[in-house]
Design brief:
2 copies of one chain form a homodimer.
Chain A (H helix, E strand, L loop, with lengths): L1 H12 L4 E2 L22 E3 L4 H14 L3 E4 L16 E4 L6 E5 L4 E5 L4 H10 L2 E2 L12 H7 L6 H4 L6 E8 L3 E6 L11 H5 L8 E8 L1 E2 L3 E9 L2 H13 L6 E6 H7 L13 E9 L1 H15 L5 E3 L4 H12 L1 H9 L1 E4 L9 H14 L4 E6 L4 E8 L4 H20 L18 H4 L2 H14 L12
Parallel strand pairs in A: 2-4, 3-4
Antiparallel strand pairs in A: 1-2, 5-6, 6-10, 7-11, 8-9, 8-10, 12-14, 12-15, 13-14, 13-17, 16-18, 17-18
Helix pairs in contact in A: 7-9, 7-12, 8-11, 12-13
């Protein structure tokens, strides 16, 4: 059967368009450390929108389920396929279809790495602001399909805020175009936003028109340490109350600091239990003013405050920040990490609840993330070879989702629902809201073949 | 029959919740000057989301079509009802449900005037950036339902960019909640964006969580006059190419200037055929720098350049800009005005095409609008008592839509499709894309009772 599948697919996309379904890289995403994986029936690598359309039409004709795949950096199992499913990897579709730097716009295919989009923009004095953690690995199509965030989403919004047009294939194999290289368009329902964050369950994104913006001339970063989340979150709220707009406003709690402190590039009091990182960006004078305000506000109640000024020191601080996830993983070899989001005034409660929930399940827990957006990577540390610990961590996660929702928050701020959070969607959405969502899914994918078992 | 309708509705919302369907203000919107109007069968004024739900449930049970209505400032006939339809006016739902200025967020009911939202924000040092032309009249629910724009959409985005949550009633009478007072949420499809711009055809927006941002400390404006669209649009593109980010980047063509020049507050060469207005906002130093850059760029090829510095002069300039639409109307007593949008590098072509199309139909034509977004209010001047001229103007509009689409643009940048542009939607959207849109409509409003005859 699987040979027949691959033969059919080769007929659609040529021999170079079909990969070996046994290749492990197509079985997993960033949830591998929780033991999630799946060997698909086949892997197809279309090289054009027409080929994607042919694959979807074929799948719809033969009742075959498709699992679109970008860079495989997702944290929700959204790109992991079942044994009867076909992975549609976009990695061969990475053309820059058009780039008009003087008009602040670019059209790229879905498989282009997000870091490449950012580099192209930067080389023309522009910024593509979305900066998900795995920008080198992740692809723009996947970032759009999950509406990925990142530290600078605080000032600049998530990926979706920068997408003005999409070309996508929807069942039963039609190419639809929504928006374009336009900055404004209200003709019809906003299919761009509907497909953004739909996790491949409504169609497959083939290419995107992205908005860019002039790169800020300068940036500065301030790092302030506090005793604990109460003091640190008070400082974060004070930044907002003062009307200062940082580009990024990040935090680490005590556990995350403990895991990563050995490589922290500045001084840090031994009893530091919370760290706030705030970045200012903009023109030179604006950055000076914003950084000055940030220091004035953040130093109240801080035990240590670093304000690196050299390029090397600033780079060292962000490199350290990027290493936090790995440092936390290294503590016990594995982690079950979530990305709940709460209203920012409930952040301290969510941070404290994470540790308490972990303790109830006999697990060390910590969190870090995008404080300004109330988005925390709440994490339970596990020995990844212990299925018992992984099970307990998942129970802890489930409890955490309830707490996040009780605080007025959501079960996912930026990673998506995928396979892993699907059982918990009804914590966040009412029966009526889920019914509306199901109606949309049924309308666009009546056979339920687009990334089944994900999101809804 | 109509008495029976009103009696039924009174049972749902009380006597004060039913208005006289003969009241003219419920018959028209801003398309009145084109002769568009409609007397509904009844007018209901719910005072709560529960009452909206009761009205929708009743309508679905009795196959009655509903036409939601905000401030009635729309330019597409989206709020005009037919004789068998019931208008649902949101004007009694204008509570501020919650306002957390220190956290940059507010939750308001749909009927609150947009100008009131902006005033509340301003009084707390904050900005609600969307600034549609009729902010005093228009209501936030209507602005969301049409994803209204305005001059400052260039820097800040349209209304939808500031909505983080919606409470809406969808058929057959269910209250759905999407998003909330959160800055990030990717749990499920983005119903907030789907309802935004859906023009009441999927449900009725009852309340919204809005994001706010600290108000900029200062602003400056520069007005530069040019010979014609080629020179003026070159200056606009030069602003973008230089990486300068104005808050607003507006234009007036020769005809619009001619209509409004008598009250222009500064000097203007007799042969000026194009005006560019650029605003800088931000912190004081940032504004100085941006305004300086704008002057440097815009003065190249300009015949006149005004850079008002006193508060009174700046206010006079913006007041004049707000009066342009009225001044153009005054020329012949009426106008048929569109809001096509094109990629900004095609703006000069669209401006010139507007005049040429008008000439072919024996009508004076002009345009002005949001240059940075490529969004032009292309306008054909008419004697509003002449049905022949109105007919010719509508033919001219239809031609304009074709030109806009041929230039890579859209038939509506910020006013919506409503009733008037519905016959032209297939110019902009492919058969496949319209099919996807229809499937969504069918899924959420299977009886087609929500604002029928609009958008799709």
């Amino acid at each position: 059967l699987k040979d027949a599948l691959s033969t059919s697919l080769r007929g659609l996309v040529g021999p170079e368009g079909v990969a070996d379904a046994g290749e492990r890289r197509f079985h997993v995403d960033a949830t591998e450390s929780q033991g999630v994986s799946g060997r698909p029936a086949a892997v197809v690598l279309p090289s054009s929108s027409d080929e994607v359309a042919a694959v979807v039409a074929w799948a719809y004709a033969h009742d075959v389920a498709l699992v679109p795949r970008g860079g495989g950096s997702g944290f929700a199992g959204g790109a992991v396929a079942g044994p009867d499913e076909v992975v549609v990897a976009l990695e061969r579709m990475r053309a820059v279809r058009r780039f008009d730097p003087h008009l602040w716009r670019i059209e790229v295919e879905a498989g282009l790495e997000t870091a490449t989009v950012r580099r192209l923009a930067r080389e023309s004095g522009l910024l593509f602001p979305p900066d998900p953690g795995a920008a080198e690995q992740s692809q723009i199509g996947g970032n759009i399909a999950t509406d990925a965030g990142g530290p600078h989403a605080f000032k600049y919004g998530t990926t979706g805020a920068w997408v003005t047009g999409l070309e996508a294939v929807v069942p039963p194999g039609e190419i639809v175009v929504a928006g374009g290289g336009l900055r404004k368009d209200v003709a019809g329902y906003d299919l761009v936003s509907l497909l953004t964050g739909s996790e491949g369950t409504l169609g497959i994104i083939c290419s995107a028109w992205l908005r860019l913006t002039p790169a800020p001339a300068a940036s500065r970063v301030v790092a302030a340490a506090y005793r604990g989340p109460a003091e640190g979150c008070a400082a974060i709220e004070a930044v907002l109350a003062a009307g200062v707009v940082p580009a990024a406003l990040e935090f680490l709690d005590a556990g995350a600091l403990r895991a990563a402190r050995a490589s922290y590039p500045f001084e840090l009091a031994a009893d530091a239990g919370f760290l706030v990182l705030a970045e200012a960006d903009g023109g030179n004078a604006e950055v000076e003013w914003t950084a000055h305000e940030l220091v004035e506000i953040l130093e109240v109640g801080a035990s240590d405050l670093a304000e690196p000024t050299t390029r090397a020191d600033v780079a060292a601080l962000w490199r350290w920040r990027e290493g936090v996830s790995g440092a936390v993983t290294a503590v016990r070899g594995g982690k079950v990490s979530d990305d709940v989001a709460v209203p920012v005034d409930r952040l301290a409660e969510a941070i404290e609840a994470t540790v308490q929930i972990g303790a109830r399940h006999g697990l060390e827990a910590c969190s870090w993330g995008h404080a300004g957006d109330g988005n925390l990577h709440a994490t339970f540390l596990v020995d990844r070879t212990s299925s018992d610990e992984i099970r307990r961590a998942k129970d802890a996660s489930a409890e955490l989702y309830e707490v996040a929702v009780a605080l007025g928050g959501t079960i996912s701020g930026e990673h998506g629902i995928g396979m892993l959070k699907r059982p918990y969607l009804d914590l966040r959405l009412s029966v009526e809201t889920i019914a509306a969502q199901r109606a949309i899914k049924q309308a666009l994918d009546p056979k339920g073949l687009m990334n089944p078992g994900k999101l809804l």
